[in-house]
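Quick note —
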Amino acid sequence: MTAMIDPEKSSLLRAAPRLMQILRVLTQHKFLGALRGKNHWPPPKEVRETFEELGLTFLKFGQVLAMRRDLLPDAYIKELELLHDQLPALGIDAVRATIESELGAPLTELFASFSETPLAAATIAQVHEATLPDGRHVAVKVQRPDLEEMIATDISALNYLVTLVEGLFPRLRGFDLPVLVSEFANSLNRETDFNHEARSIMLFRAALADIPDLWIPKVVAECSSENVLTMEFSDGERIDLYAGQYPENMPRLINTLVRLTLQTIFEEGLFHADPHPGNVLVLPDGRLSLLDFGMTGVLDETMRESLTLLLEAVVKGDARAVTEAYLEMAPQGSEKVNRAALLMDIKAVLYEIHRSDLAEVSIGDSFDSLLRAGSRHGVHNPGEFFLLTRTFVILESMIRELDPDHDYLKSFREQITRLTEKHFSLERIKEKTGKLARDMERLISDAPSDTRRVLRRIAEGNLGQLQAPAVEALGGRVSRNLERLTGAIASAGLIIGGSTLISAPDGGWHHFLGELLVFAGVFGTFIISAGALRRDRGRGSGRR
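Predicted structure written out below.
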């Protein structure tokens, strides 16, 4: 069973020494003066050095803050992006103890050979080269011991610190610091759970199996656990080093990078959130190898659809459509947002995008500008949107480093076109139509009974005096209205879907199927209206 990092387990008494240490370091680096306003913030370099001095959890927290371009000025973002992820290596005795405890067997039985010198040593874990008894060449990722208790204490101290600061300075509540700390704790939970990373690897392997220029190492399940992850060894070279030797291969490899990023986002709803050159290797046969799936993002279907609408609206320069799609991606509290002010800010963002040279437009920077505009007007941006922005920023930066002359947006447009054609294929339309029909059938059949059940529970509570025929009549009216609304939604969906197909540029069967769907939607609307009119007349005659 996976052990979760739970800051609630760390009481104030246990967290107090760490909290006092944190306050002492913050005071030494003049952080407390920052509470008086931005003019009193410590220099960016001192902020970075403070996080480094506070240790592992704060190194990670600083890396998360580096994604929050909506909260911090660019100078601080750039400095926090320099936070190193390297720590002194664990000794072989500690590594052996962790592996043998997790896998339940001596190291010499589990591996035919095991290198005592790690390939890399980061904040969460270090990686060793090894060979299995059957001769397979593997990489073994071993987590540092006692991380759970240490991180839980630090998160608890952060929560107490945030509560204290917000109590003393109410104006800081607009930054949603408790939410930021909570999302950070959830991120660390995922990153320190190697079972989660193993599942992510399997999902990515399945999702990208049709890309011939890509290889993702397979997990060796029998030698993996919550704190140990064994994978096939990737005998490749960092892509930035490879680019210096073989620049002629970069266009193909960059197209592969763009394809795998967009395919996983729009088709599977997941993405690698840390695609820096150290995690992208080139194998001897020229294929890409993707590593380190500890930081991944997940988008549900609704968010993917909103993201598609957002990108289309940005390309068209439609500020109103961008605003609506953006608020759909961040629905929490969006009803309190000043939409008019947000719309004006987004118009300014789109103006800057479209006045620039198209070849210089950055998707990551465009998302970043939206996040900043939204935060200024009280939008609660979901954590996945920050991860997605980070993904595009890192990817675009790497592409510019690998091949400054490469037309990144051309690769992007080609992949979007391919995904759009796949999205409107006959098979996909049949699949979505079938799902829509099943959902509507379930909603129509369940709505009357669900409504009556809710009304009955209300009647049995404090409103028991309403157990009169009026409640049953109200239940009947609500049920009928739900049936009408559901039918109207289904009809509208058919009309909209049909209109979209009719407007498809290639015509053909898309046009014919679109006409059928529009006809079905219009006919359905007529049936609903006629039935409603007949029932209303019947009730009217009954009352007379």
